[in-house]
Design goal:
Largest sheet: 4 strands, mixed
Distance between the termini: 140 Å
Strand content: 15-25%
Radius of gyration: 29 Å
Strand order of the largest sheet: 4-6-7-5
Number of strands: 7
Structural class: alpha+beta
Shape: rod-shaped
CATH topology of one domain: PH-domain like
Helix content: 25-40%
């Protein structure tokens, strides 16, 4: 019986091992994407600690749940899960103005992101608010401040 020649099959085994290793690395990297609400921006982290993307709160125009076709996709899973997608529409962007992320609890994350954004940018950015529409309130419509009572001069009592 002739001996089995491993040298003929070694390149194929190396290529298969490389493919499996690359696939395993892709799975680990994809599953390790996390989202962190920082002091002034949303931070997207890879391998749980390495920040790879920052989105300033001032650059966020809209938060929603839709899925546009042309967008940056920072999902932390492989399957299309539309129940976890959070859509961020940016004010500025050269190639992508839309960013899709998939936090586990998207509505809680959205509320926390809106609160942090309102705290940093100094007000509510909800649709219909005066601040987001660019309309300044009319000074005539302001409520007058209550006047402080005038100091009363004490007159000497008459006998």
């Amino acid at each position: 019986m002739p001996d089995f020649d491993w040298n003929k099959y070694l390149p194929a085994l190396q290529a298969g091992g490389s493919w499996l290793g690359g696939l395993l690395l892709l799975v680990i990297l994809k599953r390790s994407i996390r989202y962190h609400i920082g002091g002034r921006c949303l931070v997207i982290k890879l391998l749980w600690i390495v920040p790879v993307r920052w989105i300033s709160f001032a650059n966020i125009r809209h938060l929603g749940t839709g899925t546009p076709f042309w967008s940056e996709r920072w999902g932390n899973g492989f399957f299309k899960r539309t129940d976890r997608v959070l859509h961020i529409r940016k004010r500025r962007g050269w190639l992508f103005r839309d960013v899709l992320i998939t936090p586990e609890k998207r509505f809680e994350f959205k509320a926390a992101l809106e609160n942090a954004r309102a705290t940093v940018t100094g007000g509510s950015h909800r649709r219909g608010s005066l601040r987001s529409s660019g309309v300044t309130p009319d000074p005539v419509m302001r409520q007058p401040e209550p006047a402080s009572p005038a100091p009363v001069a004490h007159e000497p009592a008459a006998d």
